[in-house]
Model the fold of this input.
Amino acid sequence: MVARGRPSTFDPHHRKTTMNQGAIFQPRRLGHVNLVVADLQRSIDFYRDVCGLNLEFTESGLRAAFMGTGHTPHDVGMMERTSEARQGRDGHTQIAKGTARAINLNHIAWEMDTEAELVRAYERARAAGIAVPRTLDHQIAHSVYLKDPDGNTNEFYADTIKDWRAVLHGDVELITSTWKPGSEAPATDRRWSAEPDRRPVPGAVMQPLRLSHVVLTTTSLAPMEAFYTEVAGLEMVARSERGILLRASGHPTAYQLAIIQGDVAGMHHYSFDVAGATDLDAAAGRLRSLGCLTGAPAARSLTAVDPDGFLVEFAQAGEADLARLEDALSAA
Done:
């Protein structure tokens, strides 16, 4: 986990009169995580053969790959680290020079219900004086990017095409360009799939169902809580003096984001749901033989470490247990 500096992008006291009128963004679910990795092919091999994610498409012009369970174009995106700038489809700077030199969390993504809701949220953010560093067109989705108080980038996106595999497959040309929200009438219909075409990876150690949650640590919990409830629009599931559990409003999972007080700020791990019938003992044995099992498997979960040190948990669905999570992180 890499410590981050604290930018002045959000003051938790700035919007007290507006906060009670509703959050700015109201996503429907956690969409994906995006990572900066050292060796792209090595990471592709790990996430396919060990984690059971299908390689949906690559973007060789960015040295990037996108892998998933089939719910969206990717549950995990990854880009090979570089000290140089990388350009998008219309020549804009997609990756600024130096910003991808370190192995790190690149961003967390949240899926909005419709493009129209995304545009309205963007307009609310601008009206509230919240910095919006980037708005992008990914051909199959439009995206708005914000930074939380710890400097973690959050993408809020809306799908713009239902059959994304018709556009994104194999190695694709640069797909990302600048987007101006509201320049054209936004779509009001839902373009995410209620019945995704899941494509498991035969023979992989794990067979995940979907991305479940992300766990962040922070040195200052209060401003992070304010951002994720009042700007990102997540609902509180549980809280203590040391941490909070959050999820998209009304989502059936126990939680989708945990934020725990710690010594450094950054991503601790992220997690996938697995079926209740999964033989975790057998999976742990295979992970151990590959040298990528970390820690002792719990009753309903186990954790793998990827080639760059990112922790990937696989867990059977359970209740939101904040105390257990806090204890596990304290012992790590």
